[in-house]
Amino acid sequence: MIILTEATKRFPTASGGVHTAVRDLTLTVRSGEFVAVVGPTGCGKSTMLSLISGLEPASAGRVLVRDEPVRGIPDGVGYMFQNDAVMPWRTVLDNVAAGPRYRGEARKPAREKARDWIDRVGLAGFEGYYPHQLSGGMRKRVALAQTLVTSPEILLMDEPFSALDVQTRSLMQDELLRLWSGTSAAVVFVTHDLEEAIALADRVVVMTASPATVKAVFDVPLQRPRAVEELRLTEEFLRIHREVWRSLREEVETSRNRSAA
What we know:
By secondary structure, the protein is α/β, with parallel strands linked by helices. It is 38% helix and 23% strand.
């Protein structure tokens, strides 16, 4: 579904130089696979999502979606950002229906589809509410419904739950797994939380300190379906966590030392 081959992204700097955000990224993500990406702060994890989504072109290397080079935003890609993209002047129903409407669906079927997804994310009865009337967790549920209502084949998620409190975050992680399990979508999930990455993913990708490249990929052979909070207490989870953290810690320390220099 997604293939990156030695993908590199460079940006011009204000001083006239060049900043390399990611270099020689090589990664494959299959249909129906959940891949979590972890790495030091500012290493270029979000840039990788921009390359896959077509929001940024690669400076070198190849980025393919469904075996086609990415030259713009591919069809069938859903993107959930760290800051939710709900429109404050629209109700929950109209926010969720906006995606199908933008894709040319008539108002009635778009709203019917939106109602179905509002119910799936546990917000039935809140269709007429505006975003300012909702809690942070409820707004994230709206954003999740917005993303999934178009039935994306690829789901890109950039720290979508990082602003939530611990309890709400755990609930949203379970909710995401429940909703995703009924699809064949390929998921690329960027997070700073290693526990979150292991609890959700089939594979965890560790990125190097900036400029980011793939350092290591770890399989997560934990059975599905998963209950996130219960999973974190198991010995197998802790074993995987220790293994991945050994690799990630080196990059975090490298990044910290560079910042202190």
